[in-house]
Amino acid sequence: MLQTAGCYRFMRTLEDKKKVVADYIQWYFIYRNHLSIQSFREGLATLDFLNALEQHPSLFFSFMCYTETRLTADLLENIFHVQFGPPGSSRRQEETRVISYWQDYLLSVEERNGSLSLEDILMFATGLREIPPAAIQPKPWLLFQTTSRFPVADVCANTIKIPVLHSYEDFQEAMDYGIQNSPGFGLP
């Protein structure tokens, strides 16, 4: 690898070793990727985007650089589109009650320091531990189900089906049990 990088030389001192390591790191991260970086710059220059990026870097920071955002109940709630039944139907009334359980449940998980976290709920529903900077694709959906007492998720479609239950306590117990007993792709 050192010969490929053009960093191969005879080392007599510890300082020579440090120079070789510095040269290799520069080759590995900059020169080896030079064509890719240049191609990326040319792509950004399309429609004068590179010029705008250079003039106003702070405006593009959130889009171009990763920043870890703390997952909150409100943020998690807003990720999901809710699929309600027809307006005015008895099904819609039940779903409206259960969506309030869902909102209370998210707040409860955020506030308590138990074994379940908001990240666990996101992982259960989407297979992701955090929200990607470019958003989640496909857009996550929150559906209602009466066939199972426990939540069911389809991570390929980013869909979570929550149970329609008659009390918040039953809902919380079912959600905790369902999410905690799903392995999450073998991740701890």
From TrEMBL:
A Pfam family per the record: HECT
Superkingdom, taxonomy of origin: Eukaryota
Tagged with keyword Transferase: yes
Protein name from the UniProt record: HECT domain-containing protein
Limits of the HECT domain: 121-188
Keyword annotations: Transferase, Ubl conjugation pathway
Active site per UniProt: C156 (glycyl thioester intermediate)
GO molecular function terms noted in the UniProt entry: ubiquitin-protein transferase activity
SUPFAM superfamilies: Hect, E3 ligase catalytic domain
